[in-house]
Structures
1.
Amino acid sequence: MRTFIKLSFIGLLVAAISLPAKAQEGNKETIAIPLSSPGEKGKLEVGLVNGSINVAAYDGKDVIIEAVAGGGKNDDRGVVTPSGMKRISSNPMELEATEKGNTVKVSTNSWAVTMTLNIKVPKNFDLKLSTVNDGDIDVKGVTGAHEISNVNGEITMTQVGGSTVLNTVNGDIKVTLESVNPEAQMAFTTLNGDVDVTFPAAVKATAKMRSDRGDIFSDFDMVIEKSAPKVDKSSSNGVYKVSIEDWVFGKINGGGKEYLFKTMQGDVYIRKK
């Protein structure tokens, strides 16, 4: 089954459209996306340019998407509304959602309009989420293979399970994993921010850790190995270049799949639950 839904509205003026399970309130729209195979594993793919993404697991069978215009960190631009007038956005918010084979893909015009997406999915769902500016990503209670990136904002995940590959540039990463996929590698990296991850106490992993301008902390009883610096040499156009990489490795409960933790300016916290 393939489902396609498109919505568009401007500020206080909302276009009249017919959608299943739709609620309408000011500059907010809620739509329900039915899955081809309810009860089976699914996947959600969302990418924003400006805005936040919040995903939470629930007991239903559909994917519920609530789209809210505005709500960005930098929405207050100091614009003064003339007396007796109301401000109406000149940029319509547009959202398209398609479903095929239990994969739901959401696309928007967030390059023009800052928005917040609040999405509910069944618990057993893979997530591929990204945003660039003016927002954070928050995930609660979802178990699956998660690939999440944010350029200027935080990534927070609580009560999640499975595996995660997370990356930010300017923002903290904070994750609490209730369960892990023992066959999957994971990565938690940021350029400017802290990396704070909590695992089940019995997790088996080999931590590959690095903080250029910070410290690394853990309450796991790790067997620590500091590798010899890796030196890469190259020459081009008469220029000779040498780069050195220095990592700390730690075996958790005897070791296992590699988990990468890296920040340039910040601290790394590896905790046990």
2.
Amino acid sequence: MYKIVASDLDGTLLMPDHKIATYTRDVLHRLHNKGEHFVFATGRHHIDVASIRKNIGIPAFRITSNGARIHDEEDNLVFSRNVKPEVVAQLIKMVKDDETVTIHIYRENDWLLNRPDEDLAKYHKESGFSFSIFDTENPPLQNAIKVFFIHHDHDYLTGYEQKFIETFANNVSVAFSTPFCLEVMAEGVSKGEALRTVVKLKGLSLNDCIAFGDGMNDVEMLIVAKKGLIMATAHERVKATLPNHEVIGSHVDEAVANYLDHHML
């Protein structure tokens, strides 16, 4: 049976209001009491996820910013990789004049936007983690964990996805966390590579892992885990990329908790 459970947050473990449900919290506590290891694997900032983990009340590894940061069960930073400053500069130059796209930068203690977006507050009700504004004419280039771009039209963002891949090739990692959020990390960064690091630190193997996700930024993790499960509400691109992976229910129905309860507890 699996010893490590890795799960995405938004659209997977959390409810539509981006909070943890009572039943899910109970399942995670029972899983921990049984001796299983839980891993938060998300695109969110590590400060944000630290608050969520504290609210749930179990020790857990945190894979954050799609694998650009890993914290262990005692909250020690065990892996860190930033986007190169020259890449950050070029990314912002490529997008800054597009008034339909919001630019975000995660740094060690900051979440920066090029313009206000109060709608994002719903994602951070529990943690209280909030953003501040930066100037695209004088952007902070150092210590960028990731740079990401939000637009209401997925097909529009795929144009930028192609441009970034063509421009930077293997010098960056590019992935959609949601259909409307395109993310750029340093080369070699992914949830899959981060999970490899976690299992090595735990003295286990990827054969001991089960993983849950719904976004393109989950694909590598769902592939490397012994069993990767896709949420029913996942984007069709995820399902098309992983046609042989099992699809379970929706986060609305706490499908992750239900699966763990029936198969691991």
3.
Amino acid sequence: MNIDIIISSEDIKEEKIKGKTIVIIDMLRATSVIVTALYNGCKEVIPVIDIEEARDVVKNEREKYVLGGERKALKIEGFDFSNSPLEYLDGSAKGKILVMTTSNGTKAINRSISAERMLIGAMINASSVAKKVVEVGNDVVIINSGTNGEFSIDDFLCSGYIIECILKEIKVDMSDIAITANYMYKQNEDLITFIKNAKHYNILLELGLQKDLEYCCRKDIINIVPEFINGKIII
């Protein structure tokens, strides 16, 4: 098995992911939301790029859906949920289809549909993702959604942790960037200490989202691995 990393949604190229198993990471906060919502009873998640596209999906059968997402880390006007995973813990989306649009994560998902398998990962389900990757046995590309098309420390350390979990199971070949992510994680296993330097972390902190940050940095509190199949994310 080979492991590689793509460092932002803007760097996704079909030739790098075609035929591969990919893991989409946007730990602050889109993939943490997806994992949390599905774990707490959401039926499925439809990730879209544009706000109007999200509204179009739900307009004829609004009772079946909830709308969630953000722009500039803030809740979108008229949506049911922001991009906080904490809003899904009480089962508010149970039995509903979540239509979701975010600045980075849903963009990365929609740019990666040529992959053979697409798994959704975050710190909160990292070890389960690693086990699924080992089970599938295909070459892996971990895609960091990044922040506004740029490298993001938080996604990179999450990648490093997932790689560390994989290495506990099997031997792999890694690209230089995958080796670097794993090394960076091992030097900073107390995630928040280092992630506090990340630009996106501090944007969320300034918005008063400390509890979101603490939740998203927790390791392995959920044991499901959502997968994107035919336009929707399910478990």
